[in-house]
Write a structure and sequence with these properties.
eight-stranded mixed β-sheet; alpha/beta; 8 strands
């Protein structure tokens, strides 16, 4: 199984697999970034960034691409997740918000994910310990050096991709005309959010089969605990209660799901993916964000619970932000609501309208 974004994947589990997506005209490619320097002091002579695109670039009289949209995935995922019907079939068609006859949509696989360079390619635990700053810089170089894009009409991101937007917006405030972060908070990952991540990483490295990351077989016991934690973190409680109403149904579902999910994981890749948030904390400089932003969270999100009041604390410091909290219901998907576009599609339409130049 090719891993989708772990949090997206788990959030829709109970309802079963979505209907098959229509076939979208996707172009795939790789850009090799030479001598990529990581914040941990190490350099890779070549860093591969895989990407998918839909639509064609449109240029102004000066030759600059003016219709590029980048969508950033979450932890454990890849750009392929944005071809799923709950996202793509709501956004990319004729007359839809990201109509690919109008927009040039770019779906990267981020460092450590998908078909981009990652520990399981061969370096294992010797791979540079990348952080979100490194991931954003690789995205920037992919756009500028590889695709010739020096400005985005829109930047969207879910979960980890949501946090990347806050990093982007401070490091490169003029790069995007509009920002749409979905399912995150613009502050250090701490408290319960840090706790379950630390537990997951500890479970992997405490497994005797770990062998310093040079395991001969996957450390399955550590991955089992990791998968358990990911299920809880991504769960949509109201939907799960409705779809698994008895002890027997719940136990049977878990027994069927765990082997499949563990089989799609690599321990080094997962540890690095979860660890990458170690350098994330944009809270000190939110005033530097100047582009119009619509920031969306969900009321049933275990990872970003609204009762902490963080959005109310931080949103007033961001000029031009509209903050939206999607109410919990039996239809929402917990943390994974970020990929079900029907819940926030109208907000995207409004953001594109108010950021029109």
């Amino acid at each position: 199984m090719k891993p989708l974004a772990l949090f997206v994947l788990i959030a829709g589990l109970v309802a079963g697999a979505p209907a098959a997506a229509q076939s979208w005209p996707v172009t795939e490619g790789d850009v090799v970034l030479r001598d990529f320097a990581f914040s941990d002091g190490r350099t890779l002579p070549e860093l591969r960034m895989h990407y998918r695109t839909l639509g064609e670039p449109r240029r102004d009289e000066a030759g600059r691409i003016v219709n590029a949209v980048m969508v950033l995935h979450g932890t454990g995922g890849s750009g392929a997740q944005f071809l799923q019907p709950q996202f793509a079939d709501e956004l990319y068609g004729p007359g839809q918000p990201l109509d690919v006859t109008r927009y040039y949509v770019i779906l990267p696989d981020n460092v450590g994910h998908g078909q981009s360079s990652k520990p399981s390619d061969g370096l294992r635990a010797a791979f540079p310990e990348y952080g979100y700053g490194d991931m954003v810089e690789a995205q920037r170089r992919l756009l500028v050096e590889g695709l010739g894009v020096d400005r985005l009409r829109l930047m969207m991101g879910t979960s980890m991709g949501c946090m990347h937007i806050f990093v982007w917006a401070q490091a490169h405030p003029d790069f995007a005309d509009a920002l749409m972060p979905l399912a995150c908070q613009p502050t250090e990952i701490a408290g319960r959010n840090r706790l379950w991540r630390a537990m997951l990483m500890d479970a992997i490295r405490s497994d005797p089969a770990w062998m310093g990351g040079n395991y001969e077989t996957q450390p399955v016991q550590g991955l089992r605990t990791a998968a358990d934690l990911l299920i809880l973190a991504g769960a949509a409680p109201m939907q799960m209660q409705a779809m698994l109403p008895t002890r027997e149904a719940t136990d049977a579902w878990l027994a069927e799901q765990l082997p499949r999910r563990i089989g799609g994981l690599d321990a080094n890749d997962l540890w690095y993916q979860v660890n990458a948030s170690h350098d994330y904390d944009p809270s000190d400089d939110l005033e530097a964000i100047t582009a119009p932003m619509t920031w969306i969270n969900s009321a049933d999100d275990f990872i970003n619970p609204p009762e902490l009041g963080l959005a109310e604390q931080f949103a007033p410091r961001i000029a031009g932000v509209r903050y939206v909290l999607i109410p919990a219901s039996a239809e929402t998907r917990g943390h994974g609501t970020h990929t079900w576009a029907r819940f926030w599609r109208d907000e995207l339409v409004a953001l594109l309208a108010r950021s029109e130049r």
